[in-house]
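Design a sequence for this backbone.
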């Protein structure tokens, strides 16, 4: 790869590392940001910001069907009511006839009473097991959280292992990551199908995201969001164009 790509990534890492240094007394341990109380805080923050700009949230409302007129989405029907719209945005579960299966993802959520060995007793960490190290076609991703993030009681850690399913035994694939935890109190495993849209959505005004993949650092999710923005608006998202005051406020 061209050297400039590596330089850009190193620069992003360094910039992210120092992003909150002033607020933390000039010290920060990680370039990664994780919301206290878990990722559920992100949609709550988005809902509050959306309300400022006139957005409306309808909570605990089932989606009965997408309403079409002349082949284009014009609304969403729920419990006898129809919310009108110019287009619909959703994940593949709402559009079973408009997506195709791309594979499966296996995830293990492990509850532990100790930090991950050989991580200096860290309250959190990200670990990626390279594919060739374990004879796979894709990497294995591990994310560890603790009471520092208000997602677990004191003295407990949460370890999440995820990977793309490549064999008929997903549990054995996850074990490459689970064994790094040492003793585990409880393990919960699920295997989910993944999907992607059949089209870009411009014809029927249904803009569909791809399913979450096995990665734990959200890079592919961000790329999917940027792609959807371009499909919906017809132009690339340029965050640098925001006024400085607005960026600081958000």
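Sequence:
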């Amino acid at each position: 790869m061209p050297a400039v790509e590596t330089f850009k990534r190193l620069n992003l890492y360094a910039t992210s590392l120092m992003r909150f240094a002033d607020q933390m007394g000039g010290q920060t341990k990680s370039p990664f940001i994780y919301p206290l109380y878990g990722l559920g805080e992100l949609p709550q923050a988005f809902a509050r910001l959306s309300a400022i700009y006139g957005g409306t949230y309808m909570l605990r409302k089932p989606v009965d069907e997408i309403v079409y007129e002349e082949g284009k989405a014009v609304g969403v029907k729920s419990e006898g009511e129809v919310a009108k719209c110019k287009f619909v945005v959703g994940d593949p579960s709402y559009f079973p006839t408009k997506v195709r299966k791309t594979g499966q993802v296996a995830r293990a959520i492990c509850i532990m009473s100790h930090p991950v060995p050989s991580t200096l007793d860290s309250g959190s960490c990200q670990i990626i097991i390279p594919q060739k190290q374990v004879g796979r076609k894709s990497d294995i991703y591990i994310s560890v959280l603790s009471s520092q993030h208000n997602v677990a009681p004191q003295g407990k850690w949460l370890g999440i292992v995820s990977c793309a399913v490549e064999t008929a035994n997903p549990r054995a694939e996850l074990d490459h990551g689970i064994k790094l935890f040492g003793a585990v109190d409880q393990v919960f495993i699920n295997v989910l199908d993944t999907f992607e849209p059949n089209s870009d959505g411009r014809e029927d005004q249904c803009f569909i995201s791809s399913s979450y993949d096995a990665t734990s650092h959200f890079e592919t999710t961000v790329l999917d969001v940027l792609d959807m923005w371009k499909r919906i608006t017809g132009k690339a998202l340029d965050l640098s164009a925001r006024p400085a005051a607005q960026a600081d406020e958000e």
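Residues 179 and 204 are 47 Å apart (CA to CA).
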